[in-house]
Specification:
Strand order of the largest sheet: 15-14-13-16-12-17
Radius of gyration: 22 Å
Structural class: alpha+beta
Distance between the termini: 19 Å
Shape: globular
Largest sheet: 6 strands, mixed
Helix content: 25-40%
Number of helices: 11
Strand content: 25-35%
Number of strands: 17
């Protein structure tokens, strides 16, 4: 189940960035599950990773390698997370990097590994090693669509976003793919996301732009409040367009940032829309809060509440559940008379209780929709924050109960 049509966009190739996808048979024979990505010499590479203390071996290796040099190749496997695997998992990740390095004629540290799938099981590294030559042969600047499929796990559909803009007669491209469906409450980025641009951006600025953009996109989504061991989001700037993005050219920096933010947000929204068992795409917005922490606390408490999420699945306008969550969100000195709560454009709570204008029919009309906004107006300050989430259905339980079966 998923929300919305889920059609992939037209992928605009990013000059210099290539992707090759194949099947290694890691978990399911014949399924696309191995992706190799080539970064051109001279490109900039930035990344953000999970803050889970049990971060997977590939995440640890990525961080180590990025401290040493600039990546030339990214290698992604699905079907196995290589997390909770100790020294053996580290050794398997290193072997994957060594194999890619030998195959492509680069240093081991110039390879970044990524894994996603079942936690706690040994990585079938021999299958990956055997399949890497096929991934190399498939490398192409037009390989985005296959790669979008090759990184999926419990996802029901591939996810992508791609935009172009013109600056001083030159075209700049930003294209990306993401995967994720369950174990989604990122504390950096998302399960896996890869974005590339042909703009020329220095590494320090690229890292700053990625961190800021991830914070307003992937760090604002939740399906089930679980932060993965493998979350990784990468941004590559090849420089092939000849358009230099820098702080000195403020107009270009603003335009590039706006496009990057839209691509990142679209990729994050696609994960929520494909949340495990999801039938609703839910926007939770908190307005006029005193602080960002306060706004996010209220928004996430609503987005994580099993009672609210099950009411959303049932299309039940049980507004008392939302009111109760706002009350327990820990906002100090909350003025109950001042706040308002809305379902869509229908006011459900004001003056400390049910809004005088509210009717069950109006609330039901909103809850029957596939896309729903819950908005809380605290009337305490000028801060506004938005979080995106899903409902909680029977299918979510079934998918995760049967995940290893």
């Amino acid at each position: 189940m998923a929300v919305g049509p889920g059609t992939l966009p037209e992928f605009y190739p990013v000059a210099g960035f290539k992707l090759g996808t194949t099947s290694a048979g890691i978990k399911t024979p014949g399924r696309l599950d191995l992706v190799l990505m080539e970064v051109p010499q001279g490109a900039s590479v930035a990344g953000v990773f999970t803050k889970n203390a049990f971060c997977a071996a590939p995440v640890q290796i990525c961080k180590r390698h990025m401290e040493l040099t600039t990546a030339r190749y990214l290698v992604v496997n699905t079907g196995n997370a290589n997390a909770g695997t100790g020294q053996e998992g580290w050794d398997d990740g290193v072997l994957t990097c060594e194999t890619v390095a030998s195959l492509m004629g680069v240093q081991d540290a110039e390879v970044l590994p990524f894994s996603t799938g079942v936690i706690g099981e040994k990585l079938p590294v021999e299958k990956i090693v055997a399949a890497l030559p096929k991934a190399k042969d498939a490398l192409s600047e037009d390989g985005w669509e296959q790669a979008a499929t090759g990184i999926l796990t419990t996802d029901t559909r591939p996810k992508g976003a791609s935009e172009q803009f013109t600056y001083n007669g030159k075209t700049v491209t930003v294209t990306g793919i993401s995967k994720g469906s369950g174990m989604i409450k990122p504390n950096m980025a998302t399960m896996l996301a890869y974005v590339a641009t042909d703009a020329d951006v220095d590494q320090a600025l690229l890292q700053s732009l990625l961190s800021a953009s991830a914070d307003q996109s992937f760090n604002r989504i939740t399906v089930d409040s679980d932060t993965s061991t493998n979350d990784s989001c990468m941004l590559v700037a090849t420089g092939a367009s000849g358009v230099k993005v820098s702080a000195e050219d403020e107009a270009l920096l603003v335009q590039f940032t706006e496009v990057l933010d839209r691509v990142m947000r679209d990729l994050a929204h696609a994960i929520v829309r494909d949340g495990e068992g999801a039938t609703k795409f839910v926007t939770v917005k908190v307005d006029t809060a005193a602080t960002q922490d306060e706004a996010l606390a209220v928004a996430y408490d609503i987005a994580h509440s099993p009672l609210v999420k099950t009411a959303l699945f049932a299309a039940d306008p049980n507004w008392g559940r939302i009111l109760a969550v706002v009350g327990r969100a820990g906002v100090e000195n909350l003025d109950l008379e001042a706040l308002q709560i809305f379902l869509g454009d229908v006011c459900i709570v004001e003056n400390g209780g049910r809004a005088a204008t509210y009717t069950e029919e109006a609330g039901q009309a909103v809850m029957d929709q596939e896309e729903i906004e819950i908005r809380v107006v605290l009337n305490r300050g000028e801060i506004s924050e938005t979080v995106w989430t899903t409902d909680l259905s029977h299918d979510y339980v079934s998918i995760n109960a049967d995940y290893r079966s």
